[in-house]
Amino acid sequence: MSTKIPLSSSSHGFEKECQEIHDSRGSLSQLLRVLDARSHHECWKIRENYREIYGEDLILLLQKKKSNENIALVKWLLDPHERDATIAREALEHGDPNYIALVEIFTGRKSSHFSLIKQAYQSKYRRQLDQDIINIEPPHPFQKILVALAASHKAHHADVSQHIAKCDAMRLFETGEGRPGTINEAVVLEIFTKRSVPQLKLTFSCYKHIYGHDYIKAIKKETSGEFEDALKRVIKCICNPPEHYAKSSFLSIKGMTADKSVLTRVMVSRAELDMDEIQKVFKRKYGMELREAICDSIPSGDYREFLVALASKTAPNTSIRT
Asked: How far apart are CA 174 and CA 24, in angstroms?
């Protein structure tokens, strides 16, 4: 049995919630009731206060039993950079890398946050994230793009340039649909290496403004191969994240994807970021609310209730966005 430790001044504020959790040991429903209405920061503080008061980490308690709801709660209680490091390792530790999960991290985080992800990854797993990407076997087009994006994050570009965006857009045209054959892979990777994600987004916007259609449409005109297919997925994540996450959520809810971690990953990682935008896209594309789709397709229980609660966490938090 855990021993109650005398409170320090930093632990005041959530003693009642911590006691409720402690007094209902084994009751996941009670833990969910305590955390559902709280922001991520408040949940993190509850975790810290619980550890200070009772000498136990809520994450370690949850990890004793593997279930969908426990996995989701563990990820929610982690710091965002620790969560991303965990998701990255899960995406890499099996023989078939989960490239989409990695792309979501590499395109959806500020360079300062990405640096913290790499630190957390090294601290937790004693490995280098960049090197693990480079060492993927067999080589894959997604791997090349991820290596380029990792190099881009190291540059820490603070500002975006309209002039650079126009020049890059023209270069993409001249080495792509402006000449016969497939796109120039080397040019694309060079631009991805040197430009920040916000700069890349502006480049693709300029491309549409100059040439009257999306760069993705230009790719589709050419002979499509594995690199082109990977590039289209990455550009979609860069240019319209809510669209990507809405579609991923729908496919996961309907059981139309082999990746069983998609829905948990989307709900946990996008809550309090752009969940409101995702829900708008979801309703426009599929004619129903995201929460309604979750309730219709997932059996009642703690996991469903937690996902519905996450769907309600729409307060903007721009600290880790690109």
From this structure: 65
